[in-house]
Records
---
Amino acid sequence: NAGVMQNPRHLVRRRGQEARLRCSPMKGHSHVYWYRQLPEEGLKFMVYLQKENIIDESGMPKERFSAEFPKEGPSILRIQQVVRGDSAAYFCASSTKGGTSWAEQYFGPGTRLTVT
Amino acid sequence: GDSVTQMEGPVTLSEEAFLTINCTYTATGYPSLFWYVQYPGEGLQLLLKATKADDKGSNKGFEATYRKETTSFHLEKGSVQVSDSAVYFCALSDPGGGADGLTFGKGTHLIIQP
């Protein structure tokens, strides 16, 4: 069973460009979480999605950031008009359950975004 | 809001030494507690967990006990190996408190010298 897959592993963008980060959950998992890890910081929750639904986006910056998890295909985290402060590692996790029913979250290897 | 505080690193130990990494938390609900480990270039792996007070999580020689009275979940191992070198994250899940994602500490970089 393949683990959580993220691509690209490394992404370099110039200020003002768009960044698209992809996450394919483990087979059978319908819950996806995105986290951001800034340098010297722990992971911060950004958004929780189920297929075709955003359940909790309380950790998402109000502007330029969006996420989706379509019926078919990977989950996408999109950052428009990137700035240097967006440089970070972005991790995706998936699980079989969410909300008040806890299930282990399996993490992908992350995408390291560098904005120049 | 919820928060997790863990000891700053790096922590450098010799092989076979005893390890303690402190972790304390604040939460509005009744959280589950976790330790994750991150090896270089990889994602996080769940090391152990405890879902209620006085539970002890254990795996690969690591242990941590959920102490509600001290709001702590310290990670311990009796004899560390070079292969234990990694970054360790303490985390909590508190969906009853309104948060769907995990809340992480900043991580502790552990270096084991032969």
---
Amino acid sequence: EVQLVESGGGLVQPGRSMKLSCAASGFTFSNYGMAWVRQAPTKGLEWVATISYDGSSTYYRDSVKGRFTISRDNAKSTLYLQMNSLRSEDTATYYCTRVESVVYWFAYWGQGTLVTVSS
Amino acid sequence: DIVLTQSPALAVSLEQRATISCKTSQNVDNYGISYMHWYQQKPGQQPKLLIYEGSNLASGIPARFSGSGSGTDFTLTIDPVEADDIATYYCQQSKDYWTFGGGTKLELK
């Protein structure tokens, strides 16, 4: 059974940093691209970043470029999101997802971790 | 950026058909494949994949869900609607990076 378990969320002050983790199990992690999708309270879904199966390619939405870094450790089957210079508008539940095939849909989602940026 | 537009809400009666639309600002088809996918999200839960590539039913999803469309106009149909289907539905494109529609909240009449 595919499982994605996020951790690392919490309350952080504006301008500070936070690192999220996503532990994957139930599949060969190194075979799949992975992504982070977020959802602000009472709002819709918003793609944040994607990383290729081997970490060689990364993609970001414009609003997080230069502040967020997606990475992975295939030996540990773990996905990361390093978030720097956090802003109040980054407040959201962050979901880890597995990227499928060459058409790139998100078949599996973690339960999410809440990040609150507030002073 | 490709923008996806959905109606914010749809009211439907149980055992009736629900049709949820998604319009994209650019064509999301490529070589005969629609880079359009649909998700269901219930309050307090993570999204769940329903349909991928426009019309393919994801594993474990009941056959009362179906997807159709091409180019810039897509539809998710639920027929018949059951009480468990009350949720918010999102379309998503993956042809040019990834964007989601604003979501359609399915409500009971």
